[in-house]
Amino acid sequence: MTEPAVAEPGMGTVHHLDDHRPTPPAEPVSLAKDPATAPTTPPPLAVPQGLRIVRTGRAVRRVATHDRTRATARFAVRHGMYVVGGGRIVARRAWEGRTASRYERMLRAAEAAGNLDLATEWEERLSRFRAARHQRRMDLLSAPVKAAKGAAAAAGLTAGGLLVLGIFLAIANKNFADLATPTLALIELVRWIVVVITVVWGPLVTLGPWAALLALWGLGRHQQAAPQWVLPARPADAGAPITPSVVVTALRDLGIAPLRQAVKEMGDAGAAMLGPIRIAGCGVEVDVTLPSGVATNEVQGRRRKLAENLARHEHEVFITIPQAARTVRLWIADSGALDEPIGPSPLLTDTTLTADYPKGRAPWGQDLRGDAALISLYQRHFLITGLSNQGKTAALRALALWLALDARVEFRIADLKGVGDWGMFDGLATVLIQGPTDDHVIEATEMLEGLVKEMERRIQAPPGTVFTPLVGIVDEAQVAFMCPVVDKEKRPYGGSKATSRYFMAARKIHNQGRAVDVLLYQGTQDPTDQNLPKLVREGAHTRASLALGTESQARMALGDKAVDGGAAPNLLRPGLDKGTVVVASDGIKIPAGQAAITVRTHYISTDDATLIADRAKALRDGVTTLTAIDHGEDRDPLADIMTVLGDTSRVLTQDVLKRLAALSQDAYGEWSFLDLKRVLDGTGAEPYKSDGRMTIARERLTRHLANRDTDGSASTAE
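-> structure tokens emitted (718 positions)
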């Protein structure tokens, strides 16, 4: 077997592979192209396989990332998710309609918000729903029997009715065959109904699922139930100008059916409801006359939805009630304007500014319209509250600094935080207590009791006597109300009962102090019935609140009337609205028809406050500041009672009181039987009747003094 021969290029002979013997020459090959047989186009170039794959991949990627492809994909995903989202919404509604999940969700939300009243209401609704559901389930057990009885009765009545009708027809037509005519007619009607259902059933089965999908798609599209990245881009309208059409549209879409219907029926598309849109500070203001059947509180209750319809945040829209009937006044801020700081206080910019306690007004800040908020402090007790670190001390201190520029005003201050916020009043206030301990609370309480004594002295002064203003300030007053310490007479310093020394001193000042210019200013955190008793907070003529957590706290801070009138410090944003207060007082100008006003207070730093305090000190001849209360002679009431008893075994209480007054007029001159009884309560030596008259036994008191603490204190540690 011979190996194949291979022709060498450029050679005219062929060689075998196994040897190199020459073979006969082949036909001569012409290297010149024959025009008749030569191809007219050049042969295609060979492309490597790897390069073809790369080009294909690039083309696929270019098509996949093209804007039209991406838009088409988003369109498909969006509308597909509309169906899925619509189905999810229908399923959730069906589930909530059949179960108690809605009530439980709202109950959890109310508990998380700390609104116990609302939580109680939803719990009652849940109980009623479960009771009604249980009754329905019990009814289902007897439903088959009732349905069978009803069907039998209906069949009997129908057959009887047809028979009677057939009898009437037979008698009328004198034809016995008409007796069955009504029954045959009913049978024929049933047959036609079956025929119609048979004809229609096929298309219904075919079109029904598509109709259901279309309904789910419509619901999902209306609710925008698709991922955010596939939703069509909407033009940004935040901060858009407020025009009549914008306001009317926002009111129409509030979800109040009578209002929406009225807007539809108005020939001018609702423009008649609006007054002129006026520029008001950093926003605009417009009065809206509501149509019949729409109450003002319905619009007030939808503040958030109205703000969002106006392309604003909730805190940028305020709804108040002017004097005109059935009218609401909308104040709409320019977008973001309320987040800009206001200017410095006039106390800093005008170094010649002085105060006038009876006639002047303190420049506290600006209202939302941008107008200066001036407040009168004349014969008005003051209370300010709010969450921690919202500017409460700075707001209260700003008023005291203005008042200090009137040299007639005397200050007695207790700062129960004790971090130096009121340090600049050293040399300006006659009393300055700084610290958070129980000892500082005792000092603050005795400071208030000193104010009470001064108030009573002024009240008993001859008519026409002129008094200088005396202002007591207690910052962080909740520390005093929560103090558990009791004195030697077993009277607690804190608390909200009639035995509480701080509480009773504050109440006495509130009751009669303003008449003789003895005033009490208090600042407190997170108001509750425990750290701010009702009688104390209601005794303040001017009540202000920074941001709070709940509506119930807002009612404690400002009162029900102010909150029902639209005041909502609980809607202020903690941190962002720092220094913004809602004020209820007749000492500040409040728009007619409103119960409160929102003020953005000027911030005065501690360094700037020191400069203002130095100016106030220059107006005075010099003030010596006490950092503790002068208690006078320290007496032990039980020991003094023992002294006046002498060697007598029993002494009448009236005689004991006379002897105590003779012993120390300052300490016991105003004592009554109740004071004596209060000191002896719990000692075993309480006054008792002997021969019909109240008496104190020396032996019993001696036994108690022998058994009490070695330090001679009758107090009880708690």
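The longest strand covers residues 518-525.
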